[in-house]
Amino acid sequence: MRKRMSTFMYKHGAKLCNLAIALATVTVSVCRGMYYQPKEPDGFAEFALNHTKNSK
Predict the structure, then answer these.
(1) Pick from 19, 39, 17, 37: nearest CA to 27
(2) What is the pLDDT of residue 55?
(3) Cα–Cα distance measured from residue 17 to residue 9, given in angstroms and rounded to the nearest whole number
(4) Which of 15, 30, 42, 45 makes a 20 to 30 Å CA pair with 9?
């Protein structure tokens, strides 16, 4: 069994790696875009206005 797996990985290892990279990039953008929407804390707009970089 180990020899079969080793042979399979030698033959198809590069293709599997490319597939994993492609799927990882697609899944991250899809999942984050559809489901991740952080909630803005209360009073954040006033805090941002009062604490800008050039406020000193």
Answers:
(1) 19
(2) 55
(3) 10
(4) 30
| Distance, CA of 52 to CA of 56 (rounded, Å) | 9
**Dihedral pair phi/psi, residue 24, rounded to 5°:** -65, -40
Instruction: Give me Rg for the CA atoms of the chain.
Output: 23
Cα(33)–Cα(26) distance, integer angstroms: 11
Phi and psi angles of residue 37, each rounded to the nearest 5 degrees, phi first = -135, 95
Length of the chain: 56
- What are 1-56's pLDDT values in tens digits? 999 999 999 999 999 999 999 988 888 776 665 566 678 889 888 888 888 766 55
Q: How far apart are CA 7 and CA 1, in angstroms?
A: 10
